[in-house]
Amino acid sequence: MTSTPEPAAHPYALEVRGLRKEFGEVVAVDDVDLTLAPGGSLAVVGESGSGKTTTARMISGLERPTAGTVRLAGRERPRPPRRTAERRRAAREIQMVFQDPYASLDRRQRVRDCVAEVVALHTDLRGADLDRRVAELLDQVGLDERQAAALPRTLSGGQRQRVAIARALAVAPRILVLDEAVAALDVSVQAQILTLLREIRERTPVAYLFITHDLGIVQHVCDDIVVMHRGRIVERGPARKVLTEPTATYTRTLLESVPRPGWKPRRSTASTPVH
User: Fold this and answer.
1) Is position 53 within any domain?
2) Quick check: 235 and 243 in contact, CB under 8 A?
3) I want to staple 68 with a disulfide (CB 3.0 to 4.6 A). Which of 19, 119, 121, 270 is the partner?
4) CA dihedral defined by 114, 39, 233, 26, rounded to 10 degrees?
């Protein structure tokens, strides 16, 4: 008896075509096309007002496009889900990590409980199995038992961002959208978080959509880059090519604003302190 072969995986975790967003007479995003491969990493780069965050919010379902389509693994993203089951399915497609994690954390809830709440909501794990999964997630982002028992106000900015990443990964999403996720951190902590993100990519199938104004950091975690200016994409390509052979004047201007000399995040080790 022959078995029916499973359908081939879709070539794109994310496919965006003709995306447009109008706020009254203002066009914030205009005719944006982009793709993200499963397990890939794409940076969307531009200054404040370039349309990059609005694009990310439409992809994540936080804003409704004026026109265009967003497809996740070949399926067009439906209207905002109303039923609980639909919202949970949507959450497993895309999770978002914001610039300020403190605003999205319950200040009265300990880190361990914050992550456990998400795991319990999206899985059937309970009791010891739930505890083990929470411990795995916190260990994956470099948080120890002391930090797991802490309240968010007692943590540093880098530690809070690690909590936000652990909570997003608890859902096992296809895509993780990181909206200026390291912009508020000092350079040494940025390096640690970028190294962490690179290592998570190596161990999990998650794909990254990395929203940033800083071309100087994307080479450490992203395969490809699109550059946005005034709501439109002005350049795209492999990260190495865009960073070394930019064709757009705007991209060259962004590169000239990167501090010199640059830095490279080091491989994290068990002895590296958590900030």
Assistant:
1) yes
2) no
3) 19
4) -30
Helix (H) or strand (E) holding 128: helix 127-140
The rounded mean pLDDT for the chain is 87
Classify residue 104: in a domain, yes or no.
yes
209: Cβ contacts below 8 Å, ≥ 6 apart: 14, 36, 42, 44, 56, 59, 175, 176, 177, 178
Tokens of 263: 């830095």
Residue percentage of the chain with pLDDT more than 70: 87
Q: For residue 121, what are the CA distances in angstroms to 87, 89, 275?
A: 11, 11, 29
Q: Which residues pair with 179 in a beta bridge?
A: 211
Number of domains in the chain: 1
Short-list 144, 166, 156, 186, CA closest to 272: 144
Parent domain of 145: 14-256
Q: What is the domain-level CATH number for residue 116?
A: 3.40.50.300
Residue 92 lies in a domain: yes
The residue to which tokens 């000092």 are assigned: 186
Element (H or E) spanning 236, and its range?
strand 232-238
Convert the pLDDT of each residue in 161-210 to its tens digit. Answer: 999 999 999 999 999 999 999 988 888 899 999 999 999 999 999 999 99
Percent of the chain with pLDDT over 90: 68
145 with 196: CB under 8 angstroms? no
Residue 81 banded pLDDT, cuts 50, 70, 90: low
Q: Is residue 184 part of a domain?
A: yes
